[in-house]
Amino acid sequence: AVKVLRTLRNHWKKTTFGVCLLSWGGNWLYEKHCDNLLRRAACQEAQAFGNQPFPSSMPLKKATVFLNPAACKGKARNLFEKNAAPILHLSGLDVTVVTTDYEGQAKKLLELMENTDLIIIAGGDGTVQEVITGLLRRADEAVFSKIPIGFIPLGKTCTLSHTLYPVSTNQVQHITNATLAILKGETVPLDVLQIKGEKEQPVFAVTGLRWGSYRDAGVKVNKYWYLGPLKTKAAHFFSTLKEWPQKRQAALMYLGPTERPPEEPDVKTSRPPLHVRLYRRLRLYWSSPPKEIPQEVTPEDWEELKLSTIELSVATRNRQLDLLHTEDFMDICIEADTVSKGQFVNRGSQKMRHPHMCSEGSQCIQASRCILQLPEGTEGSFGIDNEDYEAMPVEVKLLPRKLQFFCDPRIREQILQSAVQ
């Protein structure tokens, strides 16, 4: 033993390296073991759903999964097959996995999709945006928009997961929790923004639209990866060297919030016999008063603003869900154009974490619909749910509670409790 200790002391550099390597390897193996335990527990819970008896005459529920294998730098397929696919197959669902091969393919595939009981999006923000855009562009979108949607967060940016699931630092746990939430069946209604240019087909978003300098600098952060934790501040600092002040000029027209109608109970009543329906129609026809001349519709009360701003954002209220709210609206944030370079760098770092945050001194507007007019020759891009689109004049319309997304039951309970308080 003394000889061994003397050898270790004489070769202390190799000893230190070996100890560090063994510690790292032991920690890596322990994390893998914990991940396997999480997967096993999730599969056992899914098996309980699959073992529930159901009538033989009832067909299996059909789930269509749209998987983007390019998400998370090409790791999404492996993450889905190891963590989510076993849970779905054990649950008793009839699962069809549709893999996208290129950007924009999900929109086209949604046009051809046949009837399904569930839609599951496996990817990031871009995949969500493509799927809901394809879904709501369909001619029969009124029917298909009622299909509940599940989201399995596999992308680099998964903004919607903050709304639907508890925060988790463990990726395996986050994915398995999201997949189990689909089986548990609790849903929340989410607002959607319809964004339409003058000639283009509408694009749909569940998070929002950003246009301005903070967004442009944020897109370039990864170019400075070699600066480590300073890369965010560096991207915003170098942005100030190219052009300052970075103002955006535009005209904005908007309508105020709309009153939320009461929810109608989804109760299916039996259809009366033919002779009863004929009698009711005849009685209604003979007893109805003469038709009145329709009154002129009052013009909508549009407000108009001339903008000079560092950044404009239009966001849904999905991050602050309120199921008992009496009004429906989206948040328009107009950042002040009098910002110093130091403030720009600091606020840019904050907006990387909270993209639609409204900074101090900004103008905040609640609206149900808005029209953004840009000066001729305006260059640059919009960020719509973290996807790039050419900047152009657009109309943004709120579609309140348009889609039903599966969520963790604990999150739904928290939302209801906070609304009551």
From TrEMBL:
Catalytic activity as recorded in UniProt: 1-(5Z,8Z,11Z,14Z-eicosatetraenoyl)-sn-glycerol + ATP = 1-(5Z,8Z,11Z,14Z-eicosatetraenoyl)-sn-glycero-3-phosphate + ADP + H(+); 1-hexadecanoyl-sn-glycerol + ATP = 1-hexadecanoyl-sn-glycero-3-phosphate + ADP + H(+); a 1-acyl-sn-glycerol + ATP = a 1-acyl-sn-glycero-3-phosphate + ADP + H(+); 1-(9Z-octadecenoyl)-sn-glycerol + ATP = 1-(9Z-octadecenoyl)-sn-glycero-3-phosphate + ADP + H(+)
Record's GO cellular component terms: mitochondrial inner membrane; mitochondrial intermembrane space
Domain called DAGKc: residue spans: 58-199
Cofactor(s) essential for the protein: Mg(2+)
Gene Ontology MF terms: acylglycerol kinase activity; ATP binding; ATP-dependent diacylglycerol kinase activity; ceramide kinase activity
A GO BP entry: sphingosine biosynthetic process
Record's bilayer topology term: Peripheral membrane protein
Keyword tags: ATP-binding, Kinase, Lipid metabolism, Membrane, Mitochondrion, Mitochondrion inner membrane, Nucleotide-binding, Transferase
Protein name (database record): Acylglycerol kinase, mitochondrial
Organism encoding this protein: Bucorvus abyssinicus
